[in-house]
Amino acid sequence: MDENLQFFDSHAHLDDEKFNTDREKLIPEIYNSGITKFVSCGYNVESSLKAIELSKKYSYIYCTVGISPNDLSTEYEREVEKVERILKNELNKDSKIVAIGEIGLDYHYDIDRNWQKNAFIKQIEIANKFNLPIVIHTREAVMDTIEILKQHPVNKKGIFHCCPFNRELIKEALNIGFYISIAGPITFKNSKNAEEIANLIPLDKMLIETDSPYLAPEPVRGTRNDPRNVKYTAQKIAEFRNMNIAEIAKATYNNAKTIFSIE
Questions:
Q1: pLDDT tens-digit readout, 60-82
Q2: Mean pLDDT for all residues in the chain
Q3: Which of 72, 74, 60 has its CA nearest to residue 103?
Q4: Topology, domain 10-259
Q5: Residues near 152 by Cβ (< 8 Å), separated by ≥ 6?
Q6: 3-state secondary structure string, 220-254?
Q7: Within 10 Å of residue 159's Cβ, how many Cβ atoms?
Q8: Angle at CA of residue 68, ends 155 and 257, nearest 5°
Q9: Backbone phi, then psi, for 100, in 5-degree steps?
Q10: How many CB atoms lie within 10 A of CB 242?
Q11: How far, in Å, CA of 163 to CA of 185, rounded?
């Protein structure tokens, strides 16, 4: 793999507690390995504030703020209000908050679906108020996710992060102008439809991510994931599309800069 290539990990969680022991040592190593930009994505108020802190400290880290469907509680309305207050306080010309996220629907766990839908819609409204794209988490909730996006259009569109390998979801997402971000599971030997999905997404709508510390790709599956491993995802996509990894790296880097409005 060409050591001069630059990669953009569009979705990582360096704000996660799993990085508490070595975060400051690891971040420069990530940059020096060729991952010259990445987004640390919030999933609750605490992680969102941590992501903002990291973005202020490192020139190559950007951030998102939001409440994920898996982090909702009976206090979710108050938590969503906190997200809006964070934006009012932090969003200025020097801010590196690039999206609202991760937000969406997840029916895998037993979290009240009305809470999820309400929080999703409210955060879409916040994104539109502040003219930001959104980063979507969806699992086992494809139809409801698309329906909400059609009923509550997002002005700046956004990204389906770690997108499930569901043909209909991807077609619908592309139809409404969203980007598709591919993560480590595309490298898994048991991933269904992986090659088809890698070829289904137009190159100008594709992003790559790690979702670290989760979902480490082959050949490091089972370890704590970090943004350095986004190269394995890029390599697998290149193989599936019969392209050079440099083409995947360049396209996904430019696409991330576009959707996140990064100069």
A1: 999 999 999 999 999 999 999 99
A2: 97
A3: 72
A4: TIM Barrel (3.20.20)
A5: 121, 124, 125
A6: CCCCCCCHHHHHHHHHHHHHHHCCCHHHHHHHHHH
A7: 29
A8: 45
A9: -95, 125
A10: 7
A11: 10
Using an 8 Å Cβ cutoff, are 185 and 210 in contact?
no
Which sequence spans correspond to the domains of the chain?
10-259
Peptide bond into 102 cis (omega under 30): yes
**Token pair belonging to 102:** 């991760």
Q: What is the largest CA-CA distance in the chain?
A: 49
Q: Which two tokens stand for residue 244?
A: 């050079």
Alpha-carbon distance values, 177 to 109, 146, 154, 164 (Å): 28, 12, 10, 17
Residues 120-162 pLDDT 10s: 999 999 999 999 999 999 999 999 999 999 999 999 999 999 9
